[in-house]
Design brief:
53% of the residues lie in helices and 0% in strands. By secondary structure, it is mainly α. Helix 1 (4-16) packs across helix 2 (39-53) and helix 1 packs across helix 4. The mean pLDDT is 89.
Length: 81
């Protein structure tokens, strides 16, 4: 079974990153500052996470600290489960 970080990485690479812009997404890469994900991308990612992991992400949890890097997202999800 894929781990949380790999599932999120695959989704971000496939659905949110500009085609051809992303070759290998690093777990510490700042998804927001590097333009890989914008505010709409965060909303799409939250929706994906809620469906895929069957959890609710409250609005107050949608912060830069929780969604800046793949590592941050995986850590947030691990703490939710």
């Amino acid at each position: 079974m894929e781990n949380t970080k790999e599932i999120v990485k695959d989704y971000v690479s496939r659905e949110l990153a500009d085609e051809g812009k992303l070759t290998d997404l690093k777990e510490e890469e700042n998804l927001l500052a590097n333009g890989i994900m914008d505010s709409l991308g965060i909303l799409k990612l939250v929706s994906f996470i809620e469906q895929k992991f069957d959890i609710r992400v409250p609005d107050e949890d949608v912060t830069v600290q929780n969604f800046r890097t793949l590592k941050d997202i995986a850590s947030y999800l691990d703490n939710k489960s």
